[in-house]
């Protein structure tokens, strides 16, 4: 049976509609499932895995406004490629976002309204120089990005192409972050609460270096940090709260064993710490010159793999006073002396340290040491006796030989798994009743579990790694790995009669039993109304450790302290100067706040983003040594050479064919 | 397939028997050279890259591809060979594909004849040139050229006038290139703007011309080709 023309047309029309619908469907399906081949030599358009994951995970629209003075860049020699580099990177973000990132480009070059809008948004004009063979000009273009998401806004005031991927990823991370990041500041020796303001001020004046307080000598830093983070005091007299994502230990003077225990356990739970400490006491009050600091913390620090030298570092590359004189004991740490491969400090700006000491990294097994920042090669040190008067320092500098000058490490990082300082040491006596985390019952552990023998441990594998995560969300601040614990349990009723079986502090009492606790969220306090006598473990004496914490008398309950012995992967940063965070230096505009805030941001936000490496979408330059004649030769040969040949061939073909047709006719 | 190649070969040779191919090549190559050296300020910008030439392609194609395609069907109809062609033992689809490949072949030849430009980039560069983006640019240019050819061929199939075919082809291609630009897509609400950008020839070309071949762009171009070639077959059948 044959169909009529009308039926055929109808069938064809239907088939076109169906094919069109299928094409749309295919394209729509492919939006979420695609592959990209980056043909560039160094894969400069390939975004980092972390960035791709971030963009693929966007659940709502992020809108970006790119304020780019494209016209100005194009008009100035040497800068014409920058707009393209910025746009290319941003377009890669758009391509990877599956439509969740929308970009609007706005050129303030000739539009005062857009210029005003950019300034109000916090985009900075960048003073740039441009020179050609005859003149030098300065221009001030805009090149910044604002991003908005769910009523929040992030601004990248200056979008630098090499670090744009990191900056954009970080900004999007901040925008889409739902949980609050909390920075803890240790406030050992904090000023007493409730004192009259005059007395507080007097005490601060009297002991400016000893009485640390986030509302006092860290006020400027904390005020700024609070714009991005929650900041809270961590006295270290109790466990560091679970929600503290990063602990800043800028006051190491006066750290006692209890403080150290809580600090240690925070690290063991995967907490990240920035230590700021020097080997000298900065001058204060009645002591106008620096003095060597005591060694009370040396062993503690050494256990984690770092040390602070008892020296005072001077540098020819130093901050200057109002008269332009260099203050050699305030070394200026310049980006060219940063580790270029570390995302923690890559592309950060300069900063200064004050009364700084050199740091040493002596990592234990399983810990990777990285020196992040150094002084300039023109630095030297004083040891033993310290003299900071300008004349004497200059004399000392003049007397220096070239060999005496060297770089000093001032910022370092230790990354890996650490063991507890208290793994083989007696615990502080006064830990009674403290809690460093969820209780055993929070973790679903019964007294029977806690009594379990070593070989029958059903919660961990043989090498001590836990095999399951806590179901109750009792995770530590940065838990990525399980942790191993000791579980000192003791019967206060027995304590008076029992003596230590050994003087070797590495030997545990029977109350300290190794146990794997899942997820690293470790309870160190257990209340058991009817405790069974703790069985002895292999190699341990049957008596409790006299140094282990005791329960309150008459409590009638057993107090036990879990000690986490091994940490999951975590990061410690050491800076050889606590005064770099002082109000004066933070307010000085010498880059200290920017450096420290970026360090904090990078350590706490999007750990995966730290893997992002700077990539510059670079284009080789055309040689500059061509004469005008040579350039013109290239231009006209390149533009007209082939067309001329094609034209000649065309004319020849035309003439030949005419001749042929003439002969034929 | 042989039938398609047969038609394509015949059409391709026809181009070179008349001044069309030569005029097209001369104009296209001169335009590209001008865009590369003068519009892109190659020696002043001092960037050893072909991006300026590739960036200009959507606009240079806008003039030359309709000129190449306008006669494909319109002239057949005008001189009365259309019916003769349809009486041959070939399907409409084979004839359409044959004409498409002939025009696309001419575009490919034109792109190949831009070889002096990458050579000059390589010669004048102070450092070794990354040829990845250049290869990507040519791949993108071929996709873009093929899409323009399919669009202009369809325009030629629905009219007897070559002038109308030229204008219609140029307009359709221009519209499909322009809808993705910020000045057009930005007028609409974000969802519509985003959709328009997904439909744009130029948006998809921008990815490839910088050296990133994305499966979404390739599928888009293949979809455009399929869609307009189907419409072309429908237009031929309707006649």
Describe the structure.
The complex is a heterodimer of chains A (665) and B (239). Chain A is an alpha+beta fold and 665 residues long. Chain A has four domains: 1-34; 49-176, Glutaredoxin (3-Layer(aba) Sandwich); 182-419 and 569-611, Rossmann fold, CATH 3.40.50; 445-565, no CATH class. In chain A, 28% of the residues lie in helices and 20% in strands. Chain A has a seven-stranded mixed β-sheet, covered by helices on one side. In chain A, a hairpin with a 2-residue loop joins strand 6 and strand 7. Chain A is globular and about 120 Å long. The two termini of chain A are 52 Å apart. Mean pLDDT of chain A is 74; it is low at 432-558. In chain B, helix 8 runs antiparallel to helix 12. At the A-B interface, helix 1, strand 1, helix 4, strand 3 and helix 15 of A face helix 2, helix 3, helix 7, helix 8 and helix 11 of B.
What is this entry, summarized?
The complex is a heterodimer of chains A (665) and B (239). By secondary structure, chain A is of the alpha+beta class. Chain A contains 15 helices and 28 strands.
Annotated CATH topology of the largest domain in chain A: Rossmann fold
Query: What is the number of independent domains of chain A?
Result: 4
Largest interface: A-B, 62 and 67 residues
Overall pLDDT metric of chain B: 86
Q: Approximately how much beta-strand content do the residues of chain B carry?
A: under 5%
What is the CATH C-level name of the largest domain in chain A? Answer: Alpha Beta
Strand order of the largest sheet of chain A: 9-8-10-11-28-22-20
Write the layout of secondary structure elements.
The complex is a heterodimer of chains A (665) and B (239).
Chain A (H helix, E strand, L loop, with lengths): L4 H28 L3 E3 L10 H8 L5 E7 L1 H6 L6 H15 L4 E6 L5 H10 L6 E4 L4 E4 L3 E7 L2 E5 L7 H13 L5 E5 L10 H10 L12 H7 L4 E5 L9 E6 L7 H12 L3 E5 L3 E2 L9 E2 L5 H7 L1 E3 L2 E5 L2 E3 L5 E8 L17 E2 L6 E3 L5 E8 L4 E5 L6 H10 L9 E8 L30 H5 L31 E6 L23 E6 L8 E3 L29 E3 L2 E4 L3 E6 L7 H5 L4 H13 L23 H37 L1
Parallel strand pairs in A: 2-3, 8-9, 8-10, 10-11, 11-28
Antiparallel strand pairs in A: 2-6, 4-5, 6-7, 12-13, 14-19, 15-21, 16-17, 17-18, 20-22, 22-28, 23-24, 23-27, 25-26
Chain B lengths: L1 H16 L1 H21 L2 H4 L5 H29 L2 H6 L4 H21 L3 H9 L6 H27 L4 H17 L3 H4 L4 H10 L1 H9 L2 E3 H24 L1
Helix pairs in contact in B: 1-6, 2-4, 2-6, 4-6, 4-8, 4-9, 4-12, 6-8, 6-13, 8-9, 8-12, 8-13, 12-13
């Amino acid at each position: 049976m044959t169909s009529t023309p009308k039926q055929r047309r109808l069938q064809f029309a239907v088939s076109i509609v169906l094919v069109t619908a299928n094409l749309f469907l295919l394209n729509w399906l492919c939006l979420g499932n695609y592959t990209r081949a980056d043909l560039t030599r160094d894969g400069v358009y390939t975004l980092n895995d972390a960035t791709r994951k971030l963009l693929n995970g966007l659940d709502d629209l992020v809108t970006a406004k790119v304020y780019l003075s494209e016209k100005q860049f194009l008009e100035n020699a040497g800068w014409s490629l920058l707009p393209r580099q910025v746009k290319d990177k941003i377009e890669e973000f758009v391509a990877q976002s599956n439509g969740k990132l929308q970009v609007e480009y706005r050129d303030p070059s000739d539009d005062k309204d857009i210029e005003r809008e950019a300034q109000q948004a916090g985009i900075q004009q960048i003073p740039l120089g441009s020179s050609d063979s005859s003149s030098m000009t300065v221009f001030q273009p805009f090149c910044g990005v604002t991003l908005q998401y769910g009523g929040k806004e992030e601004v990248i005031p200056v979008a630098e192409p090499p670090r744009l991927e990191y900056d954009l990823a970080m900004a999007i991370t901040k925008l889409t972050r739902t949980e609050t990041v909390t920075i803890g500041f240790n406030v050992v020796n904090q000023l007493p609460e409730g004192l009259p303001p005059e007395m507080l001020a007097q005490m601060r004046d009297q002991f400016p270096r000893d009485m640390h307080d986030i509302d006092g000598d860290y006020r400027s830093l904390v005020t700024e940090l609070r714009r991005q983070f929650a900041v809270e005091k961590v006295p270290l007299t109790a466990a560091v709260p679970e929600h503290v994502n990063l602990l800043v230990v800028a006051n190491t003077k006066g750290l006692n064993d209890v403080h150290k225990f809580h600090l240690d356990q925070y690290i063991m739970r995967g907490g990240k710490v920035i230590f700021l400490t020097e080997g000298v006491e900065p001058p204060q009050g009645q002591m106008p010159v620096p003095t060597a600091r005591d060694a009370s913390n040396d062993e503690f620090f050494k256990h984690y793999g770092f040390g602070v030298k008892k020296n005072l570092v001077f540098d020819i590359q130093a901050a200057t006073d109002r008269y332009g004189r260099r203050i050699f004991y305030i070394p200026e740490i310049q980006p060219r002396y940063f580790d270029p491969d570390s995302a923690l400090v890559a592309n950060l700006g300069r900063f200064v340290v004050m009364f700084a000491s050199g740091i040493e990294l002596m990592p234990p097994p399983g810990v990777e040491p990285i020196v992040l920042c150094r002084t300039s090669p023109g630095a030297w040190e004083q040891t033993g006796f310290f003299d900071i008067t300008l004349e004497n320092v200059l004399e000392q500098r003049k007397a220096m030989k070239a060999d005496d000058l060297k770089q000093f490490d001032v910022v370092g990082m230790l990354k890996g798994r650490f063991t507890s300082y208290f793994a083989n040491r007696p615990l502080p006596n006064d830990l009674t009743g403290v809690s460093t985390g969820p209780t055993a019952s929070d973790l679903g552990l019964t007294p029977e579990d806690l009594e379990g023998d070593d070989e029958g441990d059903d919660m961990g594998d043989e090498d001590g790694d836990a095999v399951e995560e806590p179901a109750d969300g009792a995770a530590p601040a940065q838990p990525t790995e399980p942790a191993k614990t000791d579980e000192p349990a003791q019967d206060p009723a027995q304590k008076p009669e029992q003596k230590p079986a050994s003087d070797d502090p590495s030997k545990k009492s029977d109350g300290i039993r190794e146990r794997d606790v899942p997820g690293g969220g470790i309870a160190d306090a257990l209340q058991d109304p009817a405790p069974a006598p703790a069985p002895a473990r292999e190699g341990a004496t049957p008596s409790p450790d006299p140094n282990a914490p005791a329960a309150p008398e008459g409590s009638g309950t057993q107090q036990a302290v879990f000690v986490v012995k091994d940490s999951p992967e975590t990061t410690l940063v050491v800076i050889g100067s606590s005064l770099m965070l002082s109000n004066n230096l933070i307010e000085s505009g010498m880059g200290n706040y920017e450096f420290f805030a970026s360090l904090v941001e990078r350590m706490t936000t999007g750990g995966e983003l730290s893997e992002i490496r700077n990539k510059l979408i670079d284009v080789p330059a055309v040689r500059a040594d061509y004469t005008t004649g040579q350039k013109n030769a290239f231009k006209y040969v390149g533009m007209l050479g082939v067309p001329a040949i094609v034209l000649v061939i065309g004319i020849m073909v035309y003439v030949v064919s005419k001749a042929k047709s003439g002969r034929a006719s | 397939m042989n039938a398609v190649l047969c038609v394509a070969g015949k059409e391709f040779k026809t181009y070179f028997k008349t001044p069309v191919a030569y005029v097209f090549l001369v104009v296209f190559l001169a335009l590209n050279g001008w865009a590369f050296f003068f519009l892109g300020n190659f020696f002043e910008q001092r960037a050893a890259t072909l991006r300026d030439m590739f960036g200009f392609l959507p606009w240079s194609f806008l003039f030359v591809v309709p000129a190449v395609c306008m006669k494909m069907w319109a002239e057949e109809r005008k001189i009365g060979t259309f019916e003769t062609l349809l009486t041959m033992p070939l399907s409409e689809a084979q004839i359409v594909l044959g004409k498409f490949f002939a025009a696309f072949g001419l575009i490919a030849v034109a792109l190949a004849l831009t070889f002096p430009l990458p050579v000059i980039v390589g010669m004048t560069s102070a450092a070794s040139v990354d040829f990845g983006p250049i290869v990507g640019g040519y791949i993108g240019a071929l996709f873009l050229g093929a899409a323009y050819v399919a669009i202009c061929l369809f325009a030629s199939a629905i009219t007897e006038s070559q002038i109308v075919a030229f204008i219609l082809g140029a307009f359709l291609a221009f519209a499909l290139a322009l809808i993705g630009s910020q000045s057009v897509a930005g007028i609409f609400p974000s969802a519509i703007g985003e959709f328009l950008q997904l439909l744009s020839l130029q948006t998809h070309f921008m990815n490839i011309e910088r050296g990133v071949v994305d499966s979404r762009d390739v599928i888009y171009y293949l979809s455009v080709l399929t869609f307009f070639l189907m419409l072309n077959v429908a237009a031929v059948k309707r006649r």
